Structure to design on (433 residues):
């Protein structure tokens, strides 16, 4: 496997780390001819949009804020759902009011029915007063909202066997149901994996008991075979978190356990690519500053990158993958710029964070032509990632094993035009034509 890692960008301001309420139009020139447009800046009212945006089928963007809204203004509000147009017009669709939810940290997902689905980490129908007559904000909710702002509370967690405090968003499975995680509670005490139907019927699929993982902060990803994959931030045999698989009927399997040396504390979601799964750990690895890892569906864990502060440190978020198979992510600290004030407080704090790229295989996107040993011109059909290049001196062809399978190439010479195709087992490519 060819493996490359590079830090793409280091962020610094003259004042140290810059905290922004949220900027979603001033135009800021960036390197490589790109420009950044601040589409909207949150002020008083809806604040702290942790969950990011999702683009709806109508072309608008939808998101959540943890605080703000029309209720609980003296306490900063209980959170909102908003709509943002591409020209920067924002509309508050929903203000949460404790009994229908508090503090939606996660990203929304648009279901195939057109509604937006999400979770709140607190609130719901099971709120109560504690012994000091202070409101206990409940254990979280699952909600549905239409693009015109009609909110429906689908489920309120009880803090019992169904779990408590869902921090991650939902995914819609191939069966049409939604799947998610709670960080705590459940029969094992350390969080759950659940399924919820579009009408709000919830089924707990798995409960973590620390030995098999604890505190799944991240959401789930569904494999091609229909199983669900995720991470726990803590627990497991090594004590530093796990990668797990759970079937839609509730069979939980621990695929890998982090030990510290191979990574520790995965908080971000997994991304699926080439049949394997990729993710990050906040800590651990060679220098203790976090890792990027690959795990196969049968549980073979490979550390791809160990961060060493110069190339970044502490990647809390998950990864995204482009069409060429490259992985992109961020670290919250580290990079080329050192904060001397940080270092005087804590010598482990170094830098302002990075944006990074990890290439797990050789890129083919830039390859338009390649010459065979006999000088025949091969024209690329499609694109992807090369795993291995095989030669056959008799047939004079190439086989390219790609991340998405075995890619066919067309051979052109003066005698014939033929396609080089893999057989159904992915064995060496045979000439046809």
């Amino acid at each position: 496997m060819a493996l490359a890692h590079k830090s793409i960008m280091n962020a610094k301001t003259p004042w140290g780390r810059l905290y922004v309420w949220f900027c979603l139009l001033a135009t800021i020139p960036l390197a490589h001819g790109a420009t950044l447009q601040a589409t909207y800046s949150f002020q008083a009212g809806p604040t702290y949009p942790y969950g990011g945006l999702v683009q709806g089928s109508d072309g608008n963007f939808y998101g959540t804020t943890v605080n703000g809204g029309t209720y609980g203004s003296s306490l900063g509000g209980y959170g909102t759902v908003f709509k943002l147009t591409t020209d920067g017009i924002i509309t508050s669709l929903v203000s949460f009011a404790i009994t229908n939810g508090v503090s939606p940290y996660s990203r929304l997902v648009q279901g195939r029915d057109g509604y937006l689905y999400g979770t709140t980490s607190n609130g719901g129908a099971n709120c109560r007063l504690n012994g000091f007559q202070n409101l206990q904000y409940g254990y979280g909710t699952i909600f549905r909202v239409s693009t015109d702002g009609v909110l429906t509370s689908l489920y309120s967690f009880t803090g019992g066997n169904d779990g408590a405090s869902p921090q991650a968003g939902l995914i819609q499975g191939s069966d049409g149901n939604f799947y998610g995680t709670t960080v705590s509670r459940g029969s094992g005490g350390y969080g759950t994996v659940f399924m919820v139907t579009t009408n709000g019927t919830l089924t707990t699929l798995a409960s973590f008991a620390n030995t098999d993982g604890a505190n799944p902060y991240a959401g789930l990803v569904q494999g091609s075979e229909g199983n669900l994959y995720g991470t726990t931030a803590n627990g497991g045999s090594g004590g530093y978190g796990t990668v797990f698989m759970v079937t839609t009927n509730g069979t939980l399997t621990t695929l890998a356990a982090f030990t510290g040396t191979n990574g520790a504390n995965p908080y971000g979601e997994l991304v699926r690519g080439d049949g394997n799964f990729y993710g990050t750990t906040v800590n651990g690895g060679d220098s203790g500053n976090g890792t990027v890892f690959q795990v196969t569906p049968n549980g073979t864990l490979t550390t791809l990158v160990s961060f060493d502060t110069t190339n970044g440190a502490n990647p809390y978020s998950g990864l995204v993958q482009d069409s060429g198979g490259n992985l992109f992510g961020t670290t919250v600290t580290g990079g080329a710029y050192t904060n001397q004030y940080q270092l005087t407080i804590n010598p482990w704090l170094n830098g302002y964070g990075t944006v990074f790229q990890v290439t797990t295989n050789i890129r083919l996107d830039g390859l338009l032509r390649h010459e065979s040993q006999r000088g025949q011109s091969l024209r690329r059909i499609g694109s992807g990632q090369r795993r291995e290049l095989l030669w056959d001196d008799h047939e004079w062809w190439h086989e390219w094993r790609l991340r998405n399978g075995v890619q066919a190439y067309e051979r052109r010479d003066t005698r014939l035009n033929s396609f080089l195709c893999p057989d159904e087992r992915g064995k060496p490519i045979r000439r046809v034509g």
Q: What stands out?
A: Residues 370-432 form one domain. The first helix runs from residue 340 to 345. Confidence is low (pLDDT under 50) at residues 6-34, 362-433. The CA atoms of residues 46 and 104 lie 12 Å apart.
